[in-house]
What does this fold into?
Amino acid sequence: MASAEGADGFAAGLADGRAKGPAAAGGPAPGDPERVAVTDEAAAMIRQLTGQHGPLMFHQSGGCCDGSSPMCYQLGELRTGDSDVLLGRLEVDGVEEPVPFWMSASQFAYWSHTHLTVDVVPGRGSGFSLEAPEGVRFLIRSRLMDDGG
Amino acid sequence: MSRYAAPGSDGAVMNYQSRYDHWIGGAYVAPKQGGYFENPTPVTGAPFTEIARGTADDVERALDAAHEAAPAWGRTPAAERAAVLNRIAQRMEDHLEELAVAESWENGKPVREALAADIPLAIDHFRYFAGAIRAQEGSLSEIDDDTVAYHFHEPLGVVAQIIPWNFPILMATWKLAPALAAGNAVVLKPAEQTPASIHFWMSLIADLLPPGVVNIVNGFGAEAGKPLASSPRVAKVAFTGETTTGRLIMQYASENLKPVTLELGGKSPNIFFDDVSTADDDFFDKALEGFTMFALNQGEVCTCPSRALIQRGHYREFLDAGIARTEKIVQGHPLDTETMVGAQASNDQFEKILSYLDIGKQEGAKALTGGTRAELGGELEGGFYVKPTILEGNNSMRVFQEEIFGPVVAVTGFSDFDDAMTTANDTLYGLGAGVWTRDGNTAYRAGRTIQAGRVWTNCYHAYPAHAAFGGYKQSGIGRETHRMMLDHYQQTKNLLVSYSPKKLGFF
It folds into this structure.
């Protein structure tokens, strides 16, 4: 598995105090625990999509239908702001820029105790995520943050 | 038990075409770029038709057709528009079985639900808005003796509607019926998981609508949904789906200064107070059915009662009875009329549910029944089946906080009214909720305290057209169903008229 790089930035708790997380804009600081990773299969799809669309971003969705799925867009397609947290930047071999992985701060308050791995499965995912026309869907696999893995 | 023959086989009540293009301007139009994608049935995993892969060019053509049709449709008398909706409803009623089988085959839902709920509700919805638009009146305000403000309802023009895959025909109807009643033309994009059944519906009713009033563009969100949602040529975007796409649609709409309505799901609490179990009577039986409603439509419902909160006094006995009721669920071939739980709508949905069962176990949630995929064998081996599952845990677990969209309920206890309300409202969402009690005061106070757009009180999963549906908090913006939905598809035109011949005297 490739891992998320600890990027420049400063660690700060979330405004609502429910969870401590990466700073909204700067992302995780050096020494912060890794929060998001990517499987080799998902990394291959990220490479392919980068070739087709240029630099990418992820934003973790919630709610109905395809909620709970990570949405993959061209970098900057979804405007992120102070109500989002940058969980990490996915390092993928052959992809120049690490791919930022975002989540809304309110959702992070409920997800912060889990580590996320971006995987990919055959599927017909909805939403505007870029991989759907390839016949696959990015999927989140989770484990507890404190399990040492 | 009887089973409907699969579409495409001998004795089938309906058949799909082998290919569906876009429906634009009252005719099928091939995709400009020539691409198609396969549409599998989740019943077996096998493709049964192929669908046009739409792009921005196709969206533009559909918008051209809609803009051509919109002015005349908007000027058509309400009585005539209502008559069209009533004819659509009648045609659907005349073909109820075909529509139900079409939806079941495409979506994986049990045909008995489509027969008894999805399609009859859709039929009633068209009739409801046929009635609502005829009864709608503008208003006038008498400002003073010489001045009157008249308020007219005018259609928005051309609207975009993006439909989810969990109720392909009913959710399309929720959006189409009020939009058409109000005099709008529509460009509709069905979900890429369930793009075909709406075309079968259109094949039944196409002769009833003027060309261009309803246009269907198929395709993927990134390729067809985005150009539709971001088009400056649509007056409004209506979307049902999840939060990130909802944000993106709001973002696009903000670039064009257009309104949106969003229905983004929930994590609905279903609350059972102690007094439910004071008698083993019809009401107790009904409450157990209400608990088991998490499995309706395989849990693929925005308002799935996926958190059951059970008061401590009867916690164990009620939960045991709920487990027993759940284990009586008949899971099987969706076209069997006895089947209660069918297939999840797609492979990725299926995989997502399994990933939640996994994190639920890691977090310490206990599977009281189910908890795995269902191996049904035979021709269903390649389909996407999950056992109805009851997880026991606490509200901070992710299985209590995220819409799994599978036949999975997360159960926890509560001590008293305040504890129940705290847990019920400890969620990002607020679409639905259920309250079960024999005490009218408790029911009323709970219903008013829960931050959700609909609180089913001593019932669940009823969707009458004449009741408003929509979300608090992150569950969305606006309402669907009920005549107030007309407001989301109409402008208010105010004519401020002076009947005085006298000047004001300023100039």
